[in-house]
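ASSEMBLY PREDICTION REQUEST
Request ID: AP-0331
Submitted by: J.K., bench scientist
Number of chains: two
Total residues: 599
Priority: normal
Notes: Please return the full assembly, not individual chains.
Input sequences:
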Amino acid sequence: MNEFLGNKRAILTLVGPALLIYTAVMLVPVFWSAGYSLTSGNAITGYHFVGLANFRELVSDPNVSTALWFTVRYAVVLTIGQVVAGYLLALFYVFFLRRASALIRTLLFFPIVLPTVAVALMFQNLFSIAPINGPVNSLLIAVGYHAIDWFGSAGNAFWIIIIMDIWRSMGFYAVLLYAGLINIPESTIEAARIDGATRLRLVRHIVLPLSFPVLLSALIFSINGTLKVFDSILALTNGGPGNATTPLTLYMFNTSFSYDEYGYGATIALLLTIICLVVTLALYRWSRVGGEAAAQ
Amino acid sequence: MTTATAPRPVGDHAVRSAPAQRASRRAVVRFTRRLPARLLILVLLIVVVYPLVWLFLGSLKSQYDYLNTPSYTLPAHWMWGNYKAAWVTGDLGLYIRNSVTAVFPSLILVIVLGSAAGFALQVMKWRLSRPVTLLFLAGIMVPSQMILLPLFTIYFQVGLTGSLWPLIITYTGTGLPLTVFMMATYFRAVPREVIDAAAIDGAGIFRVFFSVALPMMRGAILTVALTQFFFMWNDLLVALTFTNSNNLRTVQVGLLNFTGQFGAIEYGPLFAAICITVLGTLVLFTALNRQVMKGLTGGAVKG
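STATUS: Completed
Returned structure:
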């Protein structure tokens, strides 16, 4: 049997094509791109070696620190927002709706599959102030407040992005976390209830620790995704006003394709990749340690 | 409490029996206890559904109507022509054709190559299967920005720019890591005995893969294919990088530049275009929501 499942030629035929394409399209370009960070130029003019000049620029470029700071803020705020919203929804499904939750679960999940560009264009018009007030500003006026220029200031624009992304993703995270919550044995919760635990204590001492692993994987997934955010911000604010809502991903894209500085673009991409790698690995290690601590 | 137990005429609504009273009070209590949950459901539904309804109404309004009547009103004239304008003048038909041309070949390639690799990594026995799995896994972490510039340079030098090939190649390459990984996980569920039995019956390894393992994976393949479909169909970064003319634009890139086609913003056709793209995903999601939900959340937990 081992001979049968260890057939070298068969293994190569099955895994070879995938590995080849994956290597050609992803692995090689990763290192190639890292090499570009030592050059200046682009695909049309060609590249020439400039040593560490790009890295010196990276350190002193105020746009990089703005983009980095925005990326971090966005990742932290949105991760907390969508995981908390998703967790509350999941608790609601499990403890209030019980079996009746299938339809609402499905409905709230739907926005995540919508094209990001479509959602962003919709939110632009939902929150618009000119040429006419969108529904949100109309509502504000109707309750006696005044219309707000949502995309005019950095602070407001940031929150519209967050609101839009929570709108898109809360149903997704709810389903993700729901899967972890329904695995908690009914008897455990029943036992705690009989012992007189209040609802809040039940969540704090029984449900939260038992759903800790799935919460962590939601957290890791969210951080990893938010660090790479591109579509929703490009389509909603295009990084504006000014560069106030420009994440690293978008700054890299503009540097490379609007200003044709591939060398510097590759340097920003490298910074982004290292951040993703370090954060993901750190979270992964921490989750193992934390997971064991919570299990005890 | 009342102790009246004397029989009363049936249908006397003025005075009700004690058990009925208690029952109705219980109903009231139950109703008020459920009220917050029901209100919350209502709010959630409004938050999710209302923007889409508003979008749909907007797609049927004339420019004057949209700019001069409150947002919640019905269209004065139902301008179904907006959809035609979006499709023809707005080139949405072309963009959808481009998206289909780029996404479906990539999807087929990713599924065929990904399931073969997943099978080899999970079912077959070889020394390097663990390191190779980890190698694929590493690809999930890498942001696309890290591979765009070399790819652009290669495509430019080989002369592929100006066609949809760069999209097909890039989607296939970037889709593989997650596909291979999900497939390998699903192959774990195929009982070893089934494969052993087929081997004892004299089937070759490829026959075992195609005729035994793959048919057992039909559900898993649909799930993974849907996940990848949404990733590719909704992609903006890759499509934006490798499409340099209007003739090559995918739906997302076309939508992003949509207002440009008309000179100024035409709200009706713009909303109609958004509605068409929303409707496409809505149909797919309604038909296959269980698989979509399973695939997208499964990818998250494993990735």
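REVIEWER COMMENTS: The first strand of chain A starts at residue 39 and ends at 42.
SIGN-OFF: pending second reviewer
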